[in-house]
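Model it.
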Amino acid sequence: MDREVDPGPVFGASGLDYTNNEEYDLPLPLESVAALFEHAADVTNNQTMGLSMGRDFHFESSSLLIVAMLSAPSVGSGLSFLNQYDHYIDSGITTHYQSGGDTVVFSADLIDMGSSDMAQLNEYLIGFLVQTLLTATRTTVPLIRVTFRHKQPVTTQALCDFFNCRLEFDAQHNSIYLPASFLDQPFLTSNKLMFRILANAMETYFSMGDKTSGFVGKVCRQIMLEDPIGNLDSKSIAKLMGLSTRTLRRRLSEEGFTFNEAKNLARERRAKYLLVNSRASLTEIAFDLGYSELSAFSRAFRSWVGESPQAYRENLRSLLD
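Modeled.
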């Protein structure tokens, strides 16, 4: 609409109704959102639509999570908060925050089956993250490098102009690399009272009745992203999380889980996510999770949920209609 383009046909081509702006408990299918970005890029003849939307984001329409992040005291506390709570708000995104050395890394990856072109969404995610830091600090973000999971586009000039650092494509994660010294940069949008209230509210709300929202939840999301078929062992997952194997197993044990139980929980969560948020067939989802036969997946899913995968998909999607 900012570019005087009727959004109706663009949303319609992606199977979405832009006039229906109710908030649902269930997210829109990731494939539909990816298709929306691609259609919008084609209609507006803007092949960096994702970056443009992230850069020009209307912060007055921010989610509660972003409002809370912007009220944090500094870059470090803001990124830490975002990493802690983003997966509750954006079920299709997994984040990872690695600090402790001279360089810190913040990653934001889409949980998908690789069946859609996610380039625009990837660029939106990282563009929005950097723009948020720009908005909050009112200073240049000293990026060391930026990486994207998708292939290098035909032109990268707009990306180079915005990020002003080394860009890498076909990477394992969508990430920004920053000097550790930048973590102490204060947020000029900081509001200590608001941050304390919102942080406490989110901690209370998202932890109620959820015994898997702690460390095991982080392990599950790492497995969902890196190893949906369950090939990696505890040593490999621990390394990806920057932990020792002993620490990984100890922290899981403290929450009443073994590593194998965490792997099964990750499979269950990925199965539920794909059933509701993708158009993949049951057979495709079964293969994605490492099952050689649909019947084996169906039996496992029924043992987790108490109903068949098809019934689960139909019941949950009916809530969106």
